[in-house]
Write a structure and sequence with these properties.
By secondary structure, the protein is an alpha/beta fold. About 45% of the residues lie in helices and about 15% in strands. The chain binds flavin mononucleotide.
Length: about 180
């Protein structure tokens, strides 16, 4: 009887191990990259990393943006000039990631130009890029054409406008990336 119990326990343990590792493999390795000027998008990025077990990467401008009023003008000029503002730092091990969440505030009804600098800096072939944003009311959809064009080779996943942090958990669960 005891042997039978031990055998069942061993079989159960093997099934659990195989089951969990299969799920981890299906999700692949996750990166949560984000640009945030005032901290809202950063908070969402941290929540996504915590829900998925992904690594965080902050997209930081080589030249910091000025205070709010001036930043409005700088960001507008960058958009009008189709600029690609330089980023401080790089994801050296991008090849390791299968899924890359990319977050940003909506700026002038689009993704900030620095997010395009980031997306154009890597080969996303074979990877899934999932956009998320915060805004003062503009929808995520305003930015999707730019993201699609800049993320060469990527499959674009179902993104979210995450102005309400409580929307993150059900969205991640729906994508199948909850850890
Ligand atoms: C330069 C600039 C442009 C903005 N343009 C828009 C916009 O077009 N639509 C909108 O709803 N909010 C706009 N906002 C507001 C931000 O999208 C919003 O406050 C966002 O949550 C900020 O995210 P962050 O804290 O991660 O920087 C803009 C803010 C700035 C600084």
């Amino acid at each position: 009887m005891k042997k039978m119990f031990l055998l069942c326990a061993a079989i159960f343990a093997v099934f659990c191990t195989v089951g969990f590792s299969a799920r981890a493999e299906a999700a692949g390795k996750i990166l949560v990259a984000y640009f945030s000027y005032q901290g809202h998008t950063e908070r969402v990025a941290q929540e996504i990393a915590s829900q998925t077990g992904g690594d965080l990467f902050a997209i930081r401008p080589a030249t910091p943006y000025p205070g709010y009023d001036e930043c409005l003008d700088v960001a507008k000029a960058e958009k009008n000039n189709n600029a690609r503002p330089a980023i401080d730092g790089r994801v050296e091990n991008m090849a390791d990631y299968d899924v890359v969440f990319v977050g940003y505030p909506i700026w002038w009804y689009d993704a900030p130009m620095i997010v395009l600098t980031f997306l154009e800096g890597y080969d996303f072939s074979g990877k899934t890029v999932i956009p998320f944003a915060t805004s003062g009311g503009s929808p995520l959809s305003d930015s999707l054409d730019s993201v699609r064009a800049a993320a060469s080779g990527a499959t674009i996943g179902e993104g979210i406008l995450a102005n309400d942090i409580d929307d993150v958990a059900p969205w991640i669960a729906g994508l199948g990336y909850a850890k």
